[in-house]
Amino acid sequence: MANFATHVGTAAVLGAIGATSLMFLGTVTPAVAIGLFILTIVGTMLPDVDVDHARPVRWLFTFMALAGTLLAVYITLPEAPPGWAFWRTTPRPGWQVAVAGICTFLTIRYPLAYGFQKLTVHRGVWHSLLFGSVLSLGWVTLASQGLQVTPAIAWLQGASVMVGFLIHLILDELYSVDLEGARLKRSFGTAFKLGMPDQPWVNLLLVATIAALVWWLPSPEALIDLFQQTEWARQTP
Which has the closest alpha carbon to 207: 122, 133, 138? Predict the structure, then answer.
């Protein structure tokens, strides 16, 4: 399979080309283009988070631990914003806030990461198109519903995640072909697949997840309207 540098390097080049093209077409702003570029790189690292002790899984759980720490500190502040700490009747002292943050970070970064690595197998479900679709559509839902990103931009961001994901799978399959020996390596067919051939219940679960996400997805018409409003589209007869 392709190594980490090849995956990230290829995604960076193609992501930069795609994001820059959208920016020059007037479809997105420079800030949005940078976000699309970053999400393409993130997408290409996702299939390898099931590799024990690999950089993607370390980065993923470190980021999740930091995000969890910020959330824990935020909701346990001495004067927490209304709605986040509705169960509180008295302010918490500073040491409790610190303990909450430290415990949250350590729990996510080590026990949860360890459990994830033990439960996952490399080139399993994470190397399937169904799971890539769940990640892509999941981001569209999170961005539009939770982060208040406009529907059109949320769709572009989800597409960037999927493009990066596909780059990873395609590169792994290309590296499964021995051109000099004109043969296929044993790893051929394990990276780019629709689902899990030997685990139909996993495929059913992924399809059900995608169906559930459809209810929360914003209308794709916003993305179509965005492209129709670009300078290039207006000049096209």
Answer: 133
What is the reported pTM?
0.72
**For the chain, what is the domain count?**
2
- Do 135 and 27 lie in one domain? The reply is yes
- Whether residues 85 and 106 share a domain: the answer is yes
State pLDDT tens for residues 99-137: 888 999 999 888 887 776 666 665 567 778 998 999 999
Q: Residue 91 sits in which domain range?
A: 54-121
Q: Is 73 helix (H, G, I), strand (E, B) or coil?
A: helix
Would you say 163 and 14 are in contact if contact means Cβ atoms under 8 Å apart?
yes
Alpha helices (H) along the chain:
4-24, 30-45, 55-75, 94-107, 113-119, 129-141, 151-174, 200-214, 221-228, 231-235
Helix or strand holding residue 183 (H, E): strand 183-184
- In a shared domain, residues 41 and 153: yes
232/155 same-domain check: yes
Q: Is the dihedral of CA 218, 223, 224, 225 positive or negative?
A: positive
193 conformational bin, left if phi > 0, alpha if psi -120 to 50, beta if neither = beta
Residues 44 and 128 in one domain: yes
Q: Where is average pLDDT lowest: 77-81, 129-133, 159-163?
A: 77-81
Same-domain pairing of 64 and 23:
no
- Catalogue the long-range contacts made by 210-213 (C-beta closer than 8 Å, 24 or more residues apart): 210/130, 210/133, 210/134, 210/137, 213/134, 213/137, 213/138, 213/140, 213/141
